[in-house]
Design a protein that fits this description.
Order of helices and strands: EHEHHEEHEHEHEEHEHEHH
Helix content: 25-40%
Structural class: alpha/beta
Oligomer: single chain
Strand order of the largest sheet: 2-1-5-10-9-6-7-8
CATH architecture: 3-Layer(aba) Sandwich
Radius of gyration: 19 Å
Number of domains: 1
Largest sheet: 8 strands, parallel
């Protein structure tokens, strides 16, 4: 099995500034390090190299997408505002949306990285692929950025893949701890793209509820599983087995694309979930199996969040070991998990079960995730 890895040194050069940018440079917040630094992403690449796994993968070089490509999802005026601010030395487009000098080109390169991964899989250059891109993208809405996301990497790349490769059905699974509101918005009325999100409830206020199931002809093609804080491996695997897998089997996508936030890791400072590296290993194995069953193994994973520079690389390594089928022997210092013997706090709890049951019930509605022609 050949796994592609998209990366570019320039991804690590996007400068989010200091921590005040999250609050619009509030005058009474002491300057400090930004939560979104290149370090966790660079350490993923370094651990892949140190473990020997990088040498077993095919490196794929990205190219930036053009303004017209971005406008498949974003308003032209918004795209131009990012370009203008970037060209004039940088600044802010609002809280959590800093745009440094040259930031437009780097954000367009991040979209291009996800596109490159999709193209490589759809052209059979590789069996599956991981796009280690930055800045993230799944919060970016049509007319504004949000939550450290400038352009919608996954959504734009999906539109391009469907246009360029003639895909009729594509599924997006988002396991970032924060709801992928931008991706949801991009396809909320589109039955050709099935969007599924497992996330921590209410981290993005007002978004990601079970009842948000799509609109018009897109009704039933958006599935949210808003797990309570403190959810662990058992809850995530139950969500995949009982909601995501049946929905994918009903929809029968031609490719599965994962928005891979690693901030549901137990030590991540931006969320309150309990996953470990083996949790991501188990989740990846399930999606890899589903891709093999439904779409010829075509699985692409695009990086989103993950902000603990120590733990995040081990989560990514577990994902990529699973995608390549190669175990490196690297031991996660935070400890292993055995799926058949999960510790109490990692098991599915009754209040988590209740949320999954609500999402599961939607699968019984007539229009939910029905295969499109």
């Amino acid at each position: 099995m050949t796994t592609g890895l998209v990366w570019d040194e320039r991804y690590f050069w996007y400068d989010f500034g200091d921590s005040r940018s999250l609050f619009g440079a509030h005058p009474h917040i002491q300057p400090g390090s930004h939560i979104e630094t290149p370090e966790s992403k660079r350490r993923i690449l370094n651990l892949l190299a140190a473990s020997g796994l990088l040498a077993q993968m095919r490196e794929l070089r990205p190219s930036p997408v053009g303004a017209g490509d971005l406008c498949l999802v974003h308003d032209e005026a918004y795209v131009e505002s990012v370009r203008t601010l970037s060209a004039s030395g940088g600044g802010s487009l609002g809280p959590g949306v800093p745009v440094p000098a040259g930031g437009y080109e780097l954000a367009a390169l991040a979209v291009g990285g996800t596109r490159r991964a999709l193209d490589a899989v759809l052209r059979a250059e590789v069996d599956n692929a991981y796009a280690l891109v930055r800045p993230p993208g799944h919060h970016a809405e049509r007319d504004h950025g949000m939550g450290l996301c400038i352009f919608a990497n996954v959504a734009v790349a999906t539109k391009l893949a469907m246009r360029d490769h003639g895909l009729r059905r594509l599924a997006i699974v988002d396991w970032d701890a924060h709801h992928g509101n931008g991706t949801e918005s991009a396809f909320y009325e589109d039955p050709s793209v099935l969007t599924l999100s497992i996330h921590q409830d209410m981290v993005i206020p007002g978004r990601g509820a079970v009842c948000d199931a799509g609109r018009g002809v897109g009704e039933g093609y958006n599935i949210n599983i808003p797990l309570p804080p403190g959810s662990g491996t058992g809850a995530y695997l139950a969500a995949i087995d009982r909601v995501i897998a049946p929905a994918l089997r009903r929809f029968r996508p031609e490719l599965i694309l994962v928005a891979s936030g690693l901030d549901a890791c137990a030590s991540d400072p931006t969320a309150r979930m309990l996953l470990l590296s083996d949790s991501y290993r188990f989740m990846t194995a399930r999606l890899l199996e589903l891709a093999g069953e439904l779409c010829g193994g075509r699985l692409v994973i695009s990086h989103e969040g993950g902000y603990d520079p120590t733990a995040t690389p081990f989560c990514a390594l577990a994902i990529l070991e699973t995608m390549t089928g190669i175990r490196t022997g690297v031991q996660d210092p935070f400890g292993p998990l055995r799926e058949e013997e999960l510790a109490g706090h990692q098991r599915l709890q009754p209040h988590q079960e209740a949320v999954i049951a609500q999402a599961e019930a939607l699968l019984g509605t007539p229009r939910c995730a029905q295969q499109t022609s």
